[in-house]
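Morning - flavin mononucleotide inputs below, output right after.
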Amino acid sequence: MRIESAAKLESYRTSLVESQDPDRQKILVCGGTGCLSNGSMEVAHVFEEELKAQNLKANVDVKMTGCHGFCERGPLVVFLPQGVFYERVGPKQVPDIVKSTLVEGGVFKKNLYKDPNTKKEILSEENIPFYKGQLRWVLRNNGKIDPTNIDEYIAVGGYGALARALSDMTPSEVVEEVEKADLRGRGGGGFPAGRKWRTVIDAEGERKFIICNGDEGDPGAFMDRSIMEGDPHSVIEGMIIGAYAIGTDTGYIYVRMEYPLALKNLKKALDDAREMGFLGKNVLGTDFSFDIEIVRGGGAFVCGESSALMASIMGKVGEPRAKYVRSAEKGLWDLPTNLNNVETWANVPLIIGRGADWFTSVGTDTSKGTKVFSLVGSVKNVGLVEVPMGYTLRQIIYDIGGGILNDRAFKAVQTGGPSGGCIPEKYLDTKVDFDELTKLGSMMGSGGMIVMDDQTCMVDIAKYFINFLVDESCGKCVPCREGLRQMLIILERITSGEGKDGDIELLEDLGGAMTWGSLCALGGSAANPVISTIKYFRDEYEAHIKEKRCPAGVCPDLIEFSIDKDACIGCTRCAKVCPVSAIAGENKKPHTIDKSICIRCRACYEVCPTDAVRIT
Ligand SMILES: Cc1cc2nc3c(=O)[nH]c(=O)nc-3n(C[C@H](O)[C@H](O)[C@H](O)COP(=O)(O)O)c2cc1C
Ligand code: SF4
Ligand code: SF4
Ligand code: FES
């Protein structure tokens, strides 16, 4: 069915809403990648079977939704209208859950979320601290609608912003609204989207293009994946509005190679949008035509960089080029091209639908709206969180993240992906926005946030990120290619006890040369993990170099394992897990470690129930 005008869209929406039976109950099963890999498809199937078996099918629907962000607790299931939230649901619990929730009108306690701090069970999603502190604008539909059903998107207001743009606004007014909203790109640099659009509009070219960057190569990040999988129409709608404003008939979505579900849901969404007349010739019955093509990513982190991405779309090797010519002026096939990130595009319908004043009511002076972060590492609540710009690191890590895992001490948080910086405890009250993070030597990046506890060695962490970047540098320019390799050699030397006086200064010099001399921002920001850890944790580097000691007890060449005989209860667990049989001792008697055999794998340390294994 084609929708030929804004008015017809409104009446279609009204008919969808009116056709919904308010008495029908819903079981929402998360169908995001995380929950699917934990068996949520099977869970949904068993719910269907159980409803049939208990004669409840007539009043209850089972629906697969996109990611709720709390993937670590998956598979997640929500009952509506009861609002009951169940975590870690397996097929075996389904009959009990159905019986308790639908037949008896109560809850099945075993699968309720239990607050790790208060130990209390919490019934509904909105009362769980992980969700309570969030402001889910971009993730508004994730976990609520079926992303493969365009009607569900339309029923919650979807494509209304597009209709408004096409019927009530000129292209220029759309750009003005985005400029007024001060929308900054969510993919890394925070460049003002409206200003970029304006450059593309003003650039000469017989054709123009727009692109959505869904490459998301940062390890541990899954913000864009969740949006593309869980609410693909919000990205598509944003792109159509952008295409109208910029004046183009062709767009591309560049999807990371390893995101099969995002690809599938986007393809379905594009087909449905085309069929309903939101894409293709004469969008919504106007004389504006636009379509979108999907391009699979090249499988390298650097392919997310703007010029490498455009090369990759054109079928060339995904290598960056020098930036003396801006891609907004000469991008794809040397024609003006506008590139924005997935989350940036998903914000556009909100701005056009609700207005720039609404959008700017949230955020800091220089960063408006919300930001989605992938909160991972040593926090109790791991997952995707969306908060207003200006929330402090402490609010994100403690209020939403629930604090540090096992109540250990906080040590640092790394923000901004592999080339972000590590921020120490004294800056936990920093308001998170593009500029504040940069001031601290880190960056917003696309929103990765890795929390580290006191058992983290900051030199080892710097080495981990540099190792990643050595593999991902495309090798085109010397400062990045050789600078990263030399940094890795020095860091390996330091963590293996071979560090020399002057190594820290050498790392700083190399970092400076890479920052200023690299062709693209991969090399330009690659030194951040090293420079920020030197800045805030210099004493740790010095302990490794001068005292041949790893204060966090992590670097295998600088530590020794022993057992405190007074604390050991002789439970034998350590001896059982030791892969090289370095631990001896009788049952209920203190054990000992033969240091000449020990390979310092930490297995004994991890299993000891009395913390009798010591690292020195
Ligand atoms: C090495 C490297 C990788 C990048 N990867 C991504 C990515 O995966 N997704 C993304 O949106 N931006 C990525 N960027 C930033 C893009 O180059 C570009 O700035 C961004 O897509 C523009 O969109 P925005 O203005 O909406 O943020 C990367 C940049 C670099 C240097
Ligand atoms: S900075 Fe690194 S990734 Fe970028 S062009 Fe140079 S070698 Fe390639
Ligand atoms: S695991 Fe701990 S308590 Fe048990 S035998 Fe080993 S050192 Fe002793
Ligand atoms: S995939 Fe289910 S919560 Fe993320």
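Note: Residues 528-546 form the longest helix (19 residues).

O.
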